[in-house]
Design a protein that fits this description.
This protein is mainly α. It contains 1 helix and no strands.
């Protein structure tokens, strides 16, 4: 499976369950959700007992500086 999160690119929008949870603004809230969602994917792989047969590669793009208010 290929999973591509685009959350950390403007506009920064997180699920309502994560708004205000980090006390660090919208960027931190969005990052907290990304961490949670990544954990859900890894947990699903583990639940299928496929972790020993699965290579997980986490990558990030170092793009332009964020100029979004609150970031």
């Amino acid at each position: 499976a290929y999973v591509c999160f685009t959350q950390m690119h403007p506009p920064l929008i997180c699920h309502p369950d994560f708004r205000g949870k980090s006390n660090g603004g919208v960027y931190s809230d969005t990052l907290a959700e990304l961490d949670h969602r990544t954990g859900q994917v890894l947990d699903a792989i583990d639940a299928r007992q496929s972790a020993t047969l699965t290579i997980s590669i986490l990558m990030a793009v170092s793009g332009q500086a964020l100029t979004h208010a609150g970031a």
